[in-house]
Amino acid sequence: MNTKPVIIAVAITGSVPRKKDNPTLPVLPAEQIESTHAAYEAGATLVHIHVRNDDETPSSDPDRFAAVQAGVRKHCPGMIVQFSTGGRGRDPSARGLSLVHRPDMASLSTGSVNFPTIVYENHATLVTDLATRMKDFEIAPEIEIFDLSHIHGAKRLIDAGLMSAHPHVQFVMGVQNAMPADQHLLDILLKEMQRVIPGATWTAAGIGRHQSEVMGWALARGADAVRTGLEDNIRISKDRLANGNAELVSLAVEMIHQQGRRPAKPQEARHLLKLRAA
Fold first, then answer.
1. Is 153 domain-assigned?
2. 140: domain CATH number?
3. Range of the domain at 102
4. How far apart are CA 138 and CA 105, in angstroms?
5. Residue 1 burial by CB count (10 A; 0-12/13-18/19+): exposed, middle or buried?
6. Which end of the chain is more exposed for a tag (fewer CB within 10 A), N or C?
7. SS3 for the chain, per residue?
8. How many domains does the chain have?
9. Does some domain include residue 192?
10. Looking at the DSSP assignment, which residues form a beta bridge with residue 108?
11. Share of the chain above pLDDT 90, in %
12. Is 0.90 topped by the overall pTM?
């Protein structure tokens, strides 16, 4: 039995679709803080944050990121705050503006990939710039892996001294036109990560209907963390999801217990990811 605790990451909002697709989706900073607190009480120890404008469009406003971070730190002691530097609906030059507020972590995609209707572009100069900013502000990156080559993109950053040899890696599976949700593919990715970046911790995110399925695969393979939340599963039927992110976290807790493991406490999560103290 694997008794190592499991970090539960909750992605509370995302950049698409809009709130009208699910009324429990938190959009305004106050809503995001409230939803994060409920998820924290349910067992989440890491929150992945996007912010939006008042009209619900994706935003890069550093002040909004700062407001959500301040509320989380006040109401969720020790919780790991992770800002998104993702690109859907955001000016590439603005994607790193929020890093000045020094969250514990930030997402970092190390290469481009096809999405349903766009190319999610992460050119080499942008990736290097974001990694440099994260290093300057002592922010730990979470490497978002949408393709096998992105593992090697992360290794190049390590070799260049822009990132620790112990990054946190997330395999993203089930995005249309990108990497399918397939156990065989997860095994290939995990084996290559362990060969190229042996010091990495890891998790896997399943998009849409694949969320619980991929979570189960990750737990069966001894993952350090699991990811859940409305960002990945916005269209879950409303009769199954009355309480939004907190309910999805509760489902993750059940799956973790079924594997004979337990959710990590905030300080345990920080220790596993080699983060600075809260």
1. yes
2. 3.20.20.70
3. 7-272
4. 9
5. exposed
6. N
7. CCCCCEEEEEECCCCCCCHHHCCCCCCCHHHHHHHHHHHHHHCCCEEEECEECCCCCEECCHHHHHHHHHHHHHHCCCCEEEECCCCCCCCHHHCCHHHHHCCCEEEEECCCEECCCCEECCCHHHHHHHHHHHHHCCCEEEEEECCHHHHHHHHHHHHCCCCCCCCEEEEEECCCCCCCCCHHHHHHHHHHHHHHCCCCEEEEEECHHHHHHHHHHHHHCCCCEEEECCCCCCCCCCCCCCCHHHHHHHHHHHHHHHCCCCECCHHHHHHHCCCCCC
8. 1
9. yes
10. 143
11. 81
12. yes
Residue 160 inside a domain? The answer is yes
Closest CA to 50 of 77, 31, 75, 76: 31
Summarised one tens digit per residue, pLDDT across range 47-81 is: 999 999 888 888 999 999 999 999 999 999 999 99
